[in-house]
Amino acid sequence: MLRITKIISAICFMALSMGICTCNADANAIVAVRTASVDNLGHVGVGFQNDDGTWTIGGVEGDPDKTILWGAVAFGDNGGWVEEHKTLQEVAVIFHALGYDGLKIIEVIDDNPNLANLEIKSFPTRGYNVVNNNCLSATIDVLTAYGVKKLPLQIVHMAPNDYYANVKGEEYLWDSSKGTYTNLITGMPLAGKSSDVNSNPPIVQAPELDTPQETQQEPAESSESSQESPDTSPDVESVLEEIDRQFQDGNSSPGGH
């Protein structure tokens, strides 16, 4: 019996490595990455599947206007955001609009969405510290609360890009020609995964983040950029509001779902 179990486990691991989700876990978690942030050290966000099949996602982006000494902020003002009860396509739209160019799906056997929800909802008020309370720390806290096992050690992989590279999961990269993230190996679209609770959500155009036009400002103002938090993503709130508005318009239209 033990031999059979090992064989099944090996088949599941091979299928996951090939990007073929043939083994059904109880739920899934997401790690998203913005590889070009912080001089290519990277930035990460996180998400997880709820009991009803919808997704909750979030991140700690940093707020350049509220950063204080040594890249720290007190309690709020850290650019933290949370979006709840989203379909997988909405997840793709949001992460892409915020500049995340890749993500990994992590299968979780014994998930705890209630504990993960408590953790992720603290994002906007957990403050920020570049050393031990940053985007990666927040992501790890949610993944751990959700029940993800065998995560990389942050003390060994301190840069978000390095940590993301060492997370075991099914990797997807943004494909502009298909308008979604596609599997790194198979090319299959993320939004086509069976875990999505709505296979026909309204099509939404992800608004682009405002490009850093501060370079056109006066030199005195541009010098403040050196004090920015390392996890900066401009105008996050406006982007999320625009996405929500478009999805609401799509749902309320005659052809919406």
Can you summarize this structure?
This protein has helices spanning 2-17, 37-40, 88-97, 113-120, 135-146, 160-166, 219-222, 236-252; strands spanning 27-34, 43-49, 55-60, 72-73, 80-86, 102-108, 128-129, 170-175, 180-183. It is an alpha+beta fold.
Q: Taking strands numbered 1, 2, ... along the chain, how are they ordered across the largest sheet?
A: 5-3-2-1-6-8-9
Which residue ranges are poorly predicted, with pLDDT under 50 across at least 5 consecutive positions?
15-24, 194-232
Strand residues, percent: 15-25%
Structural class: alpha+beta
Number of domains: 1
The number of distinct β-strands equals: 9
Intertermini distance: 47 Å
Q: What is the residue-mean pLDDT, rounded to a whole number?
A: 77
Number of distinct helices: 8
Rg is 19 Å
The shape is: globular
Helix % is: 25-40%
How are helices and strands ordered from N to C?
A: HEHEEEEHEHEHHEEHH
Major sheet size, sense and barrel closure: 7 strands, antiparallel
How is this structure best described in words?
With 257 residues, this protein is of the alpha+beta class. The chain has one domain (11-252). 30% of the residues lie in helices and 19% in strands. It is built from eight helices and nine strands. The strands form two sheets. The protein has a seven-stranded antiparallel beta sheet, with helices on both faces.
